Amino acid sequence: MQVEKCLEEIDSEIGLIDKLFESHQLLFEKIKISEPDTVELSATAAVLHSFYNGLENIFCRIAKRIDENLPNSSYWHQELLNQMSNKIKNRPEVITIDLNEKLSFYLGFRHFFRHAYAFQLKWSEMKKLVIEIDAVYEQFKSELQLFKLKIKNYGT
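Structure (tokenized):
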């Protein structure tokens, strides 16, 4: 029951992340070919932040409903990301180490964004995240789909 509910919640969250990208598609197309102005930079930063928050929402659901272990230290965001790339007794790994490493940059940006002022944003530090976000998200969805297939038969 918990697994089925978790998978439904994951699908719902993926739908929200998809909507995030759809609603900002024109912005991302523009900034991939020309440097963003201050307003575009702020909007882009908010999307990067929301993107990682969406992934982390999925990770939290898995940690709570399947792992029954949501980290609670002061480094819980990083611990949660690492937890998702580990196979545990209740489930297979959710993501690969390769994806974990890629997502750690989005986690780092999320942390920066939450504690910075908008005028501190630098395109030179965000550009790689923006350019790679589509490929990273596709890899995430692919690995998540594999996880969903495995978890349905896990331990049987």
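The longest helix spans residues 38-67. The helical segments are 2-23, 25-31, 38-67, 76-84, 97-115, 123-152.
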